[in-house]
Specification:
By secondary structure, this protein is of the alpha+beta class. The protein has 6 helices and 12 strands.
């Protein structure tokens, strides 16, 4: 197995390009393909973003996705078709609700509820990002950081994937957690994120919808890293096994995903083999776009 071509955002847009299908269970159906990665099973962000895209394509009256709440039920095979069935639970004047179930090989692997809002006048407030975070141009890319490093369970394939196979350039503050915990073992970090090249159009999605799907896709890569950081568990530690369990996301306001975004993350709790992380996406001009919460299995044997 090989990784996607390096330093392109094509893997993301390929992941969220859905094909309409005949329904088997609910009201609307699509299929999608999980993208290559160097792990035994597919990347969880594929499922989150694909389910978001399926839900958005089922809402045709102009409402905007504002929240998702999902569970990962089974690991997904790489490069295999996932069937997304969408149930139209409610369509009101102000809000609409969808249930999305992802099936692979006839078994459910992911399920979520997605809610949409028409929007109305109201007050405005948003959280502020931390002060004194270095600009992304001052930080090494993953490719630069990993160029002359080896160790742990990292292979040439995983090194290439971390460096350029995830569709987005990622630059860590205070430092990456690939091979060792760079920086303090504190329960928080920030990651600057930007597509390697301009995001391509995605059939069936408007550009703002594609950008929301991009946030849903990229958020899963690093959301558990603050937990790993505080537990002193780098990704390449022998015996480390992680898996996403459940995921929640709130989209507060639209914003293009074509420049650097600051993904501010915090570890909330870790015990009995599970860890909870939260994250917030900010634009360079400090607008708060979205908030994420995810619990994952963290097993260090």
């Amino acid at each position: 197995m090989t990784t996607q071509a390096l330093e392109t955002s094509a893997a993301f847009t390929a992941a969220v390009t859905l094909t309409p299908a005949e329904t088997e269970y609910f009201d609307v159906a699509f299929t999608a393909i999980t993208q290559p990665c160097p792990w035994p099973k597919a990347y969880g962000g594929d499922l989150v973003a694909q389910a978001a895209a399926a839900a958005m394509r089922s809402v045709t009256d102009g409402k905007t996705l504002h929240s998702m709440h999902g569970y990962f039920l089974r690991p997904a095979d790489i490069g295999a078709q996932v069937r997304y069935e969408v149930e139209l639970l409610r369509d009101g004047r102000g809000y609409s609700t969808r249930q999305v179930r992802g099936y692979q090989h006839g078994k459910p692997i992911y399920v979520c509820l997605a809610n949409f809002a028409a929007g109305e006048p109201g007050g405005t407030f948003h959280a502020e990002p931390p002060e004194a975070v270095p600009d992304p141009e001052e930080l090494p890319s993953s490719a630069t950081y990993l160029a002359h490093r080896t160790g742990g369970t990292m292979t040439d394939e995983s090194k290439a994937y971390w460096s350029g196979g995830r569709s987005f350039d990622m630059r860590h503050v205070p430092g990456p957690v690939y091979l060792t915990i760079e920086g303090r073992r504190a329960p928080h970090q920030a990651v600057w994120i930007k597509p390697f090249d301009p995001l391509r159009p995605v059939e069936g999605l408007s550009d703002p919808q594609r950008d929301m799907a991009a946030l849903a896709y990229v958020c899963d890569y690093t959301i558990l890293e603050p937990v790993l950081r505080v537990l002193d568990l780098p990704w390449a530690r022998p015996g480390l096994i992680t898996a996403s369990l459940d995921h929640a996301m709130w989209f507060h306001r639209p914003g293009p995903v074509d420049d650097w975004l600051l993904y501010v993350q915090e570890a909330v709790a870790a015990d009995t083999g599970r860890g909870l992380g939260t994250g917030r996406f900010f634009t360079r001009d400090r607008r708060h776009l979205a908030t994420v919460a995810q619990e994952g299995m963290i097993r260090a044997v």
